Amino acid sequence: MSDFLIITDLIKTYPTAKGPAVIVRDFNLSVKKGEFVTLIGHSGCGKSTVLSMIAGLNSITGGGIVLGGRELSGPGPDRGVVFQSPSLLPWMSAFDNVMLGVNQVFFTASREEREQIAEYYLTLVGLGESLRKKPSELSAGMRQRVGIARAFALSPKMLLLDEPFGMLDSLTRFELQQALLDLWRRDQKTALMVTHDVDEALFLSDRIVMMTDGPEARVGDILTVPFERPRNRKEIMEHPDYYKLRAHLIEFLEVHAHKKPEKPLPPVPRTGSKGVEREEAVTVSQ
User: What CA dihedral angle connects 283, 284, 285 and 286, to 10 degrees?
Assistant: First the structure.
């Protein structure tokens, strides 16, 4: 299976009074078509920054991102994004919030066809009887279901999920994790999700990418999740490897994520018209 998303030497800096602050440095990752990959790390390490650059919502200081053979340079309907807060328009119903994107992407389809798309995905996430309700009439979990339906309804090449269940209670979070997996299995879109929840990452992912702490965060380790699909939460938690994998993730976050390179990294080159020059990787002490 070929690489569908290729991130090469990604760098993100922000200007400060003391000079550029390097948030992400030499971030390299490849994701295969149909793979579900999770980024995990401590708060503030740059997980969401990486995701927002892939989404085209945040500019790239250096390096490059290629999706499906095309270098990304801004946002587009080929990427469906689910945020921690779905940001629904409060004066519109769940149906109309989904229709906003559907109308933009499928503008050549008939009105009836577009309405069928919106209704289909809202029904799949369990909101078939709440289509006409406004966000204020929906629970937090139901509003997030609208956000998930909205992303899938665009038929994107890739799903980007930024801690989509982080603001929900445990029971609702478990329900939506299962709803997401059930929906994802239908056409197995390439997915990249940000989370800080170790158990969530193990339940959903094919691979878990562990990021080091910032500043200058990068990929520190990658764990392959061996559980077969479709997945059952109870069976996974009873799997003999579950707690071994969980301990590996926790050890990285508690010990290795804090470690810095053996020697100082060279200065970040200035960004030219073709981006930042490639730099040699610096090994990290383990």
Answer: -120
What's the gap between Cα 274 and its chain centre?
Answer: 26
Q: How far apart are CA 100 and CA 106, in angstroms?
A: 10
CA pair distance 46, 51, nearest whole angstrom: 9
User: What average pLDDT does the segment 25-45 reach?
Assistant: 95
pTM: 0.88
Kindly report the number of other CB atoms within 10 A of residue 61's CB atom. 21
> Token pair of 274, please?
């073709």
Kindly state which CATH superfamily the domain 38-59+70-255 is placed in.
P-loop containing nucleotide triphosphate hydrolases (3.40.50.300)
CA 210 to chain centre: 13
Residue with tokens 């801004």: 74
Give the single-character DSSP code of 222: E
> Could you read off the pLDDT of 137-194 as tens digits, one per residue?
999 999 999 999 999 999 999 999 999 998 889 899 999 999 999 999 988 999 999 9
